[in-house]
Amino acid sequence: MAHATFTSEGQNMESFRLLSGHKIPAVGLGTWRSGSQAAHAVVTAIVEGGYRHIDTAWEYGDQREVGQGIKRAMHAGLERRDLFVTSKLWCTELSPERVRPALQNTLKELQLEYLDLYLIHWPFRLREGASKPPKAGDVLDFDMEGVWREMENLSKDSLVRNIGVCNFTVTKLNKLLGFAELIPAVCQMEMHPGWRNDRMLEFCKKNEIHVTAYSPLGSQEGGRDLIHDQTVDRIAKKLNKTPGQILVKWGLQRGTSVIPKSLNPERIKENIKVFDWVIPEQDFQALNSITDQKRVIDGEDLFVNKTEGPFRSVADLWDHED
Ligand code: NDP
Q1: How does the average pLDDT of the chain come out, rounded?
Q2: How far is CA 33 from CA 36, 184, 221, 250, 316, in A?
Q3: N or C: which terminus of the chain has fewer CB atoms within 10 Å of its end residue's CB?
Q4: Whose alpha carbon is nearest atom 42 of ligand 1?
Q5: Is the CB–ligand 1 distance for residue 218 below 6 Å?
Q6: Which domains does the chain have, with CATH numbers?
Q7: Ligand 1 site, residue 117, Cβ cutoff 6 A
Q8: Closest residue (by CA) to atom 19 of ligand 1?
């Protein structure tokens, strides 16, 4: 595929405008696997780093800590309306009657009155207590239209300001767009130079759906070590930046918001210092040419049952689009 050139977009924009008119801050703090340290990371990010965007999920098991961090940051003088908080509806809650109670539980854990963004975490419904990998009967039918209607109702009732999805394919987004009264404001996907996923990015842009890039540094244990990638390292040295900053900036220059996770105060602060410089075109294209394109978060352990289905391979999960 020809290199996508997105260098003119998102260069030094500190936020992106969503279809709803709300703004999403371009860099947010990821909180997956942050555990009991999430509160400290959130306070550091907001108060010392200047972050205004926090990404969490019920499934991360750290919403209480994230909520405590937000509360402490607000005691330091911040208003709720200055923050953009995202959470996600887990797979066991993907039936229409479970959507609102799940959101209410999330708001309670976070000690918030509303979310800025509520996302469907994965487009697969799991039975409560499902095994990893799933046994026969653990992956259930997903009523996408019914669930989306309930997401729309949460938005109408101002419990969430925007709704969106994660881990969708073009096929699934097309299906959703076929019945949606409210178009998803955001599609959150794995994206980094080792998994550009240009196809989804282009489809979302065409449909004015903002993309947030998750695992922008190649993710955590078992992920892809992009921090020590030769190309990333060479460009970092040349521009006098860190590899983390190059990876964040690459995402911004593609027009996506980016949510790096860190528990380390110095790295938290470093990852958002990306607004007063650019990756020159030639280096940007070198990052776009990294070979061995591969997802890190492919969903296999959660949703694939090779013998019983309904999804027998990773390719099945992603609608054979990769
Ligand atoms: P990231 O790509 O953000 O990488 C995080 C890892 O990089 C950690 O090990 C961190 O260690 C390290 N790190 C952070 N900053 C630097 C730096 N400047 N230099 C070197 N190493 C650094 O991984 P995630 O998979 O956590 O993705 C980010 C966020 O995206 C998640 O936390 C979550 O909020 C979201 N997400 C959403 C998914 C979805 O399905 N919607 C799926 C996966 C992620 P340390 O903490 O020690 O700094």
Answers
A1: 95
A2: 9, 26, 10, 24, 27
A3: N
A4: 214
A5: yes
A6: 15-318 (3.20.20.100)
A7: no
A8: 244
Backbone angles phi, psi at 199, to 5 degrees: -60, -45
Residue 30 near ligand 1, beta carbon < 6 Å: yes
Active site residue 214: no
Token look-up 């998750």 returns 214
Query: What does the alpha-carbon distance between residue 56 and residue 61 come to, in Å, rounded to a whole number?
Result: 9
Write out pLDDT tens, residues 253-312: 999 999 999 999 999 999 999 999 999 999 999 999 999 999 999 999 999 999 999 999
Do the Cβ atoms of 93 and 130 come closer than 8 Å? no
Q: What is the pTM of this model?
A: 0.96
Residue 8's identity, in one-letter code, is S
Q: Taking a C-beta distance cutoff of 8 angstroms, is the pair 253, 284 a contact?
A: yes
The one catalytic residue among 51, 60, 118, 214: 60
The SS3 call for residue 7 is coil
